[in-house]
Predict the structure.
Amino acid sequence: MSKILIAVLGFMLLALVRSDHPISWYREFEDISIDEAANTRNVDTGYRLPENVIPHVYDIYIDLYFDERTENPYSYDGREYIIIEAVEDDVTQIILHANVDRINAITLTDVTGAPIRLNPLQPYETVELYHFLKINLAETLTRGARYTLFIDYSNTMNVGPLKRGIWRGWYTDAEGNERIYATTHFQPYNARQAFPCWDEPLFKAVFKVHLSKPAGYIGTFTNTKLESSETLENNRVRDNFLETPKMSSYLVTFLVSETFIPIAEDLTHDPPIRIIGRSNTLGLADHALELAVKMTDFFDEYFGIPYSTLHPNLLNDHISSPDWASAGTENWGMVSYRELYLIIDPNETIMSIEHYAATLVSHELAHKWFGNLITCYWWSNTWINEGYASYFGYIATTEMFPEYELQDHFNSRYLQTSLAFDSGVNTVPMNHDVNAPLEVTGHFGTISYSKAASFLRMTANIISLDTFKKSCTYFLTSNAYEPTDQYDLLAAFNQAIQEDNSLAAYTGFSFDEYYRIWVNEPGFPILNVDVNHSTGQINLSQERFFLSSAVEPTGQIYPIPITFSTRRNPNFSLTPIRIMTTATDSVSKDAGEEWVIFNNLQHAHYRVNYDETTWILIAEALRTTPEEIHYLNRAQIVDDVFALIRSDRMTYNFGFNILRFLDREINYHVWDPAISGYTWIRNRFRHIPEKQAEFDAYVLGQMEYAITTLGYETVEGETPTTSMTRQIILQFACNLGHTGCVQNSWAKFVAWRDNNTPVDARVRRNVYMTAMRLGTRSDFDFLLSRFYESNYANDQLEMLRGMGASRDPEALTRFLSLTLTKYVRSHDKLNAFNYAVAGNRENAITILEFVKNNIDQIRVEYVEDSPPRPVHSALVNLAAYLEEPELVEYEEWLSTQTHIPQYANAIAGISTSRANMAWGTANADIILAATKDGAATIAVSMTVLISMALLSMFV
Ligand SMILES: *[C@@H]1O[C@H](CO)[C@@H](O)[C@H](O)[C@H]1NC(C)=O
Ligand SMILES: *[C@@H]1O[C@H](CO)[C@@H](O)[C@H](O)[C@H]1NC(C)=O
Ligand SMILES: *[C@@H]1O[C@H](CO)[C@@H](O)[C@H](O)[C@H]1NC(C)=O
Ligand SMILES: *[C@@H]1O[C@H](CO)[C@@H](O)[C@H](O)[C@H]1NC(C)=O
């Protein structure tokens, strides 16, 4: 098991450092894989509702109370009338979901209004584990007849977003007053906290919402248009909203506030497209509006089902919420986002956030069709919703915002993330059973987002983009407003493929089989390529790729779309020349020595290894004529080489020789996996600082050209990708102590501190982090005071990251204490903790002390039982950065904490941490020798290179 944990944790650490967007859905749940590795699956299908009774229409009255209700502040009373139908005979019990404080009354009536008697001995019961509300009848329901179920209940708002349901958050308005707002987050299984309901996606129904609140709460928004408002007693108002389309319960939402207003709007669309946020962000959402408008226009055309035709009552609102548990949530008519992603201002926003925002708005809008219009029966199929939304978040956005070059960024964001995650032994297929709530949230992870999106892109390349588009329309049209699944999707693919005869070039290829394997089998293949350069014959073989070399082969064959380029035919075409459906195969090229690269632009979901001669030809080309090889394939090679090394298929010597070309490389896509790969290694040297310093010197040597070429200043008119390259290069260089980077960052900070010269937002990350590392306690106080003053969520987040890098134990302790207050929002508490852990080598000691002294409060404030399980992650991440004496101390302390739910994970984290250090100790000399070898052979001849490779390559 420890091997698995090493792999998982290794990736997690890497994600921590790579993470530009601290918590997006796909990374948020990455940590859960630790549990997946440790726990057996929960096969208890008792979580599922029976399907003998279905809801048709919900009429829901919710009365929200804030602090004016003194005996039970921040609570709500609900009454709902649900029109239901028995779809089977002999129904004597109605089971639905409820997770509320109190059920006050339940009645059932038939269409004439006559009561149906409930069992007088026990009219209803609740089952806490499953959140079931069981209503026991004294008579039998008539199949096909409709009834009205009335439920009166009460509940309390959650504090902060993490536990979802109806929750309250806070903000400061333009006058400096602190204000409380209430809003909802129901996906995936939290509508039952707001109103008892059939809280599974397949039970689609119409919802009519009525909200009463104090009259001052005028900023009220929900899925649909307002029908009427009525004044009530006690200075209260009730807003009645028009009914929704037929949809799943998790898509219902509202926000009730005093001063949220439209902060940007486009009234030329029907419905108008509005960005809604705090009044003191008015005018700061023009960029978000442009994203929402253009992507709505795009999807209207692409799917052939315009947004305005989805339902006459639906709005097209986008809420900028100061608190949000994920990056964004696709409630129909009213999407909510973490404010971080909607308030985009080039003077205040770092490029990676601006970039991510473009994909996010598009992702959420794509869900209006894929997810809301069609919805999968159950969360086992989450990959369909999330895969399509993720695919469109990049591929569709490329059309409307070509400047972001998102088609290229897809690879590091999704494809490489998936290849890394899906190579563990505990990975799961895209389609797989989930039951318990933690499994459901766990399935909102890398496989459902990244692998599914990559699978869809690979499929589109096989069947053609036009056929893919057609299949989307067929799927949406045939299943509109209904629950659906992967079989319906396959039918839509087949319909479009047959009509277009899209697979004519691939005789004997079964699309059904391709689909079945990729959807239902875990993992992916590595393609082994063996080229006879004198004849041009290329032998191919495949096997499932595991990162651990200890895993037995499975014999699984994957259908692989084959593309390749050569020096003499470098066309990098995405159209497969064939689909390889057997264990071995062969293709040919012209005779003669030249580089050969498979998987053009790394568009398909597999890794590639080559024979030695071919690798050497590739390495030679990368060094001498790198521009001959498309940058996405240079990136692929970097990503594959690290995986080949880690899986013992390639030696460090050989791999680092291939990577030598990085010392002349400035492309973002190439550097991104390189930084990940180097980070993975250097994190294992933390306990041997001299070796780490030697390794860092090598890495910095490789980066020098990129640092010099990119410089420290944003250049007028540069592309977003260039800004992002500078961002990741400088962040890494400064972290590794690059002198120029450190000096420049410090100078920028001093100019800001002393002369109020603004720091260019695009480089704030390295400036803030470096300043806190070098600065004094008063510099920390300076940044902290700016943190309190800032009106920009992104700048605040960068400041948190900076303050986490403070070396001063007193300042760092204050920073950690700040995470226990509301000033670090719940969704940022774990981020802030992680920033501190990763900030400096010695920080872990201070953090351990802090954790020991404050564990009870941490568990409460970080909301330990919320779905991402932030306290589990915090305690595991801490272990990953402690060295031996402190690990012993941590272990001893944990032995007094066996009652905390994180105990087992933290202990496992300690053994992983030890294993990682042991790995570092065992491999440091080999790795450092490989770096020297590489440096010494920069000008070496081919023959020397070949013999060296023969000596060093693992077979
Ligand atoms: C950004 O800052 C520059 C220089 O301070 C200023 O001229 C410009 O108007 C600002 N842009 C925005 C969108 O505020
Ligand atoms: C390449 O093919 C030729 C002709 O079949 C053969 O003589 C030679 O040994 C092959 N080379 C390798 C490296 O397999
Ligand atoms: C490719 O496979 C053929 C048939 O098995 C074999 O004769 C040949 O030597 C192989 N070539 C290489 C380069 O491995
Ligand atoms: C690209 O190369 C492949 C493999 O050699 C070939 O089949 C394909 O026709 C080429 N495509 C273009 C556009 O040249």
Observations:
- The first strand starts at residue 53 and ends at 65.
- DSSP finds 30 helices and 30 strands in the chain.
- Residues 1-41, 935-955 have pLDDT under 50 and may be disordered.
